[in-house]
Write a structure and sequence with these properties.
mainly alpha, de novo design (two linked rop proteins), 3 helices
Length: 85
């Protein structure tokens, strides 16, 4: 169940990021990158839950969590920059 949530949010963020790359305006970019930030944060949540619940050993998921949090920081920074422009 949780694994399928990770799959959905992870693929959702990928699909939405692709849409960001094809944004036709600044406003559309800002809106779509906001969705990517939300999906990435949700993915981080599900990964943390898998580790916290003991479903997946933390050492098996640590690299994914690091990468997901790095992506979250990148996307959030892009969102902030785009909102200022």
């Amino acid at each position: 169940m949780i694994g399928s949530q990770v799959l959905r949010s992870g693929t959702g963020l990928a699909a939405n990021y692709r849409a960001v790359c094809h944004a036709r305006s600044q406003a559309e970019f800002v809106a779509k990158i906001g969705v990517v930030v939300e999906e990435t944060d949700e993915t981080v949540f599900w990964l943390e839950l898998l580790a916290d619940a003991g479903i997946v050993r933390e050492n098996h998921i640590k690299g994914l969590l690091v990468e997901a949090n790095e992506l979250l920081a990148i996307f959030a920074a892009s969102q902030r920059t785009a909102k200022r422009s």
